[in-house]
Design a protein that fits this description.
With 386 residues, the chain is α+β, with helices and mostly antiparallel strands.
């Protein structure tokens, strides 16, 4: 009987086995679902994400151990490749020196066009009807009715201007508008800077002469004004195109080594880079209070012409390094983008082009966010925030 009982316990009907398997699968599915939910909850925890990111950051750039495992004879050949790479870096440095020479050459070709731009902006030259004719792109073309509406509106505006006897010269506030339209520059502008920048007539880029160390100078040309005596303010950036002997593999093109501003001859009471404050001081012994006047630095775009000096050792504190890094970025942007394409920053077209560079990333981020929201909605334990 015992044997029969054991047989009954160990042998089961095939149909019953299928039921057991289905139950096991259901239980396993539930476990996986709970595990996924738990994982999602963990990944939504900022502390867990920060710890995970820190761990991943620690792995980036860490040696795999492969190089250490190589035979000595192979390591020797790898060293030969690294020596070749150093030679490549020196050739690349020469390449950028020649690029600088090309920039000098083509700067001379661009300059007559930039000079004419300046003449139009400051009303030294009135362009002809032919020069003012602009052919719109197909996307910009308007319907006939819309064109008529625009012409009528323009006619009314012209008549209104004639009545008010307005006669603007050139393109008023051209460069100030450019500055306002560019985030990198508008962040530097203060309200007290704007009346001064209304007098800015042109910005020019001058490259160092052939055979001289690499550098470029930004020239800010102002019309005579009540704020300072000069008509030109300058900022010179010194560059170097050679690999660092201690770290040749870090070479990635010319780097700015330092910059020199200029002393602004401010008219009396017009220096916007300084402000006067009144401060109360209490005498320790007598307890009397007096008011003292103190002059302190003031936020202004014109601090751009007084950058921190780089000591001969090249060592700077963190604050000075941050200021110089931002300064170099601004100087390079003015040289590479603002001066060559000023009218497009004035109209906003260049800004739209710059924004287009980020649209795709934004769309991807939106898509990812949408996927996360969809996952949350499908999560049975998800509770939307009210």
């Amino acid at each position: 009987m015992a044997d029969l009982d054991n047989k009954d316990q160990t042998e089961m009907d095939p149909a019953d086995m299928e039921d057991v398997e289905e139950v096991e699968e259901e239980e396993t599915g539930e476990d996986n679902s709970k595990a996924r939910q738990l994982t999602m909850q963990m990944m939504q925890n900022p502390q867990i994400l920060a710890a995970l990111q820190e761990r991943l950051d620690g792995l980036v750039g860490s040696p795999s151990g492969y190089m250490e495992s190589l035979p000595k004879v192979v390591k020797r050949r790898v060293n030969a490749l690294k020596n070749l790479q150093v030679k490549c870096a020196h050739i690349e440095a020469k390449f950028y020196e020649e690029v600088h020479e090309l920039e000098r050459k083509y700067a001379a070709l661009y300059q007559p066009l930039f000079d004419k731009r300046s003449d139009i902006v400051r009303a030294a030259y009135e362009p002809t009807d032919e020069e003012c004719e602009w052919k719109q792109d197909e996307e910009e073309e308007l319907t006939v009715s819309k064109q008529e509406e625009m012409k009528e509106k323009a006619k009314v505006e012209e008549e209104k201007k004639d009545e008010e006897k307005e006669d603007p010269k050139g393109i008023p506030e051209f460069w100030l508008t450019v500055f306002k339209n560019v985030d990198l520059l508008s962040e530097m502008l203060q309200e007290h800077d704007e009346p001064i920048l209304k007098h800015l007539q042109d910005i020019k880029v001058k490259f160092s002469d052939a055979g001289q160390p690499m550098s470029f100078t930004l020239e800010f040309h102002f019309e005579p004004n009540d704020f300072f005596t000069q008509t030109v303010l300058t900022k010179t950036y010194k560059m170097r195109s050679e690999p660092d002997e201690s770290d040749p593999f870090s070479f990635d093109g010319p780097e700015i080594m330092g910059c020199t501003g200029c002393t602004i001859d401010w008219s009396k009471g017009k220096n916007v880079t300084l402000k006067t404050i009144k401060k109360k001081q209490k005498h320790k012994g007598r307890g009397t209070v007096r008011t003292v006047t103190k002059t302190v630095p003031n936020d202004s775009f014109f601090n751009f012409f007084s950058p921190p000096e780089v000591p001969e050792t090249g060592e700077l504190d963190e604050d000075s390094e941050a200021v110089l890094a931002a300064d170099f970025e601004i100087g390079h942007f003015i040289r590479e983008r603002i001066v060559p394409r000023a009218v497009l920053y004035f109209t906003g077209e260049a800004i739209e082009d710059d924004d287009d560079d980020y649209d795709e990333e934004g769309e991807e981020a939106d898509d990812e966010e949408g996927e996360e929201e969809a996952d949350e909605e499908n999560d049975p334990d998800y509770e939307p925030k009210v």
